[in-house]
Amino acid sequence: MEDAFIALVVNSSVVLLLASLGEMIKERAGILNLGIEGIMSLSALSAVASYIAFNDHALAILVAGITGSTLSLLHGFFSIYVKADQVLSGLGVLFIGLGLSGAIGSAYSGMEIEPMEPIIWLFDTLSILAYASAIIFYVLTRYTKLGLILDGLGDNPEGLDYLGYDVYRLRMLAVVVGGFLVGLSGAKITLSLIPVWSMGVTGGRGWIALALVISSMWNPILSIPISHVFGLLTQAGILSQVFNLPIDSRIASTTPYISTIILLTLVHSTRFKRLVKAPRTLGTPYRRRGE
Amino acid sequence: MISRERSDKPLLKAENIWVVYPDGTIANKGVSISVYPGEVHGLLGENGAGKTSLVHAIYGVVRPSLGRILVDGREVRISSPRHARRLGIFMVPQHNVLIPRFSGRENILLAGDRKTLARAMDIISSIDIDLDIESPVETLERGLVKKIEVIRALATGARLLILDEPTSVMSPIEARELLEMIRGLREMGYSFIYISHRLDEVMEVCDRVTILRGGSVSYVGEPSDVRVLEERMFREVDVDEGVGEVMDNLNIILGVEGNGQLEYARDLLTYNGFVGYVPSYPYASIVPGMSLVDNVRFRVLDREDVNPVETAKYILERYEVLARDIYMDIGKLSGGNIQRFVVGRELEIGRDRCVLMFPSRGLDTRSTRLIWMRVREAAERGVDVYYFTEDVMEAVNLGGVVRIMYRRRVSDGVDSNELDVEWARRLMSGIGWNA
Amino acid sequence: MRKELLAAILSISIALSLYSLVIIYYGGDPIEVYIKMVRNAFLDLNGFRETVKLAASLGIISLGLAIAFKAGIWNIGGEGQYIIGGLAAAFVVYVLSPPLENPVIPLIASAIAGGIYTSIPSYLKYRLDVNEVLSTLMLNYVALYIMFYYVYGGWRDPATQGFPVTPEIPYSYRMPIIFGYESNIILLLLASLLVYLIMYRTRFGFKIKVYGLNRDAYEYAGYSKMRMIFGTLFISGLMAGLAGGLDFTGNFYRLRPGFASGLGYTAIIVSLMSSNNPMVIPIASILFSGFLYGSYTVAIVAGVPTEATYIMHGLLLLMVISRSALDKVVEWIWRMLS
Q1: Which of A215, B201, B318, C141 could make an SS bond with A257 (beta carbons 3.0 to 4.6 A apart)?
Q2: Which of C205, C231, C207 is nearest to C219 (CA)?
């Protein structure tokens, strides 16, 4: 009983962690993607569809990751090359992701599949991948030139352009890599957390992940504890029933959403404001001189 | 001045460069320039004289339509900035190219690797300067930032460094330190093309100068006499008509930007009356996408006394704003026109007071003189004008009461026609203030 | 307005063409499907009635959103504000039961409730610069669960066993039916006129334009950031809430879990597609509603699931983005030629 509870929280947290890390890579490069929910949804569906077709979890994970990268590529194209307003391109990807997953998904609605088995204690492949990614992300960006380039993209892309780097291509790379992680978070939902597809299985987690990126101050290590807190909160509805709490389960279900607002409020209030430094050019398309 | 026994083979030689743009503008007409190893070569000229095009041709940004470039005696076709860099030609532009949140060290690593960093440290110790490369660049003063940019370029293989207005937005002390560093680097054998319109600096640090005027070379030689330089730079001999009487309500605040002007201006703006405000960069004060009329209208929505249509027409005429009509999208205007428009608008609607922050920055001489005239007219009408400038000569020519500002301290007022230029310059750099 | 209407129609045409690929994927014949959709939505008396009702609510939300979007304030919470509006109207009818039995009081309540529901996001944006996309969006989910709470709980109709719905409201509270049609559409036309006046004939409307084009210039001119943020969000919340009350008193006559059908999100697309123009929005709403209603009726026959309509949303949004891109490409070509 205890174990099942912890497993639930861990799995819920890993979804958020993967999505936050993926978005974090993009945001540190200066790209804001509001369409995570749509990408997550389509990736989740692709994982289910893949598993039903080929009965292989590893392949399903890969397919989900590629789906995430592909949809993010679309967003990246419009944001980087077309230089469209990133709010709009994000919403566009959101609807396409939701629409495609809704349309294709109706054929798979309700089909249960085998969830992934844990490898170490409660942690399955994706969970381990998630924690590893966070650490690798931190090490790479803190101690290697890769980190300088990534943050340079978000802070002053002109400076990188000046040194001869291809800003467009590098940002696109960040978007694709980040998108892969977002795809993995979708896989984590349908291959582990809720191993059956239905419209709305993502339940707003994509949006919560956006808030988590801000709250962890674009630091991958910080996103580990924060995603776990919210991993717990997103299960408030179910937990209130399981533990027979004296609160209506539906009202309890509002917890993660209200908490997200509270979290954003805290993070933006003056005391923390000084520590929270968003990437300078987040959301602003880059234009080479003379374009 | 050092003589050129060092070497008589130029590091860079550009011969008979013509740069013609697709729209027909001829930016350079047979310009030649040569720079020797260990030389600081000044490049002077007004806005539009062709300095930028020439330098872009040398740096591989544009292909010269005619002429040739020789590096180390060998003719090359410089195809791109990357190619130029491989040849050892680097450019440090006016705008910031460092990553603000990184330290100097990280910025150097970004441009190369550990070896690059080691080379940078070598150079720094060779010329014996103190350079903070550990703090984030955004916390450093402009002078330090420029120095880091220079060192980085040299550490990544520059032999000839093109400096575009390196001392803009820098206090006179910082400028002096930068020049000192350049002199030290020159001793080490590095070469510089020094683009500036600050004649005193050019006289101080350049071995030779090339002056461009209207696309061609009007002078090459040692910078011996300021008057000669000025004469060769401007089309007509610019004799100032005389100051005109000093006006009490024309307050001129003289100081390098960043010494508290913004705060002072903010105080001035909290005034119970109609206040005009021309910010340092006009883009925060206009709405691209709206017409010129609407760009007046949005300023006076809650006022009855200003007619946007008439005011817009008036501004176009009196401030020589080149536009089809008042219904044209302001975003389509050139920077100079926008600036004149904003100055005009604020002087007109600021019935009681008008605050102008460095309004003539980047403007050509004619526009600057026009603005001076209109500012004086406004003062005559009774508007309390507060004119912030960095240029001592501008302060002298405006004809008002000059106060010098340094680190939020403001000096006593001195009439323009009684202003001691050297004293003013020293105060601007922080020398001569009572404790 | 002509240009924007043309752009909207062009976008819809292109999107429909692309959407036909979806229909083909499900084995349907696009032309046949589209003809059937037009027939069901516009040529069938009952269908047309439903389409018009849908368009009324959709259009009203879109009009409200247009005001916020024009200011560059991204109110994604139309869905939640709509739900809250419905809840407020339901509250008036079920709980307060005022002696004056007509739809006016519930409608007013729904509008005000919708407006108030934006006050937290407004405050957070104004005071702390919290992104309004996230704050309004989170409140969508909150509103949804609150509605579930009441529909499954306190307001549940004991008579309908198994189906979680609230009781049908008495006829006196319902929107009047004129010439066989619900009068909802009149509200849409009034709202359209109102928003038009606000946008183009008031000082506030001009300020909205300025703020949307250049926030810095707006503040430079000394106008109140607070009034802009609170004002635009309140108006858009008000209209979304009104739409919710309108659907409660004029369309469904009750609450049920599916009350929130994504109308608030669809409205985002309609506004953007219409370039936030209050004269184009009603037309776009009717066209889009026709498409939506047509899709529902055709879904079973053509095998295209109703969720697929979200693809249409996405395509249309891409059209919106592409339009600005198209403009840029046109400008680029123009510059090369001159």
Answers
A1: C141
A2: C207
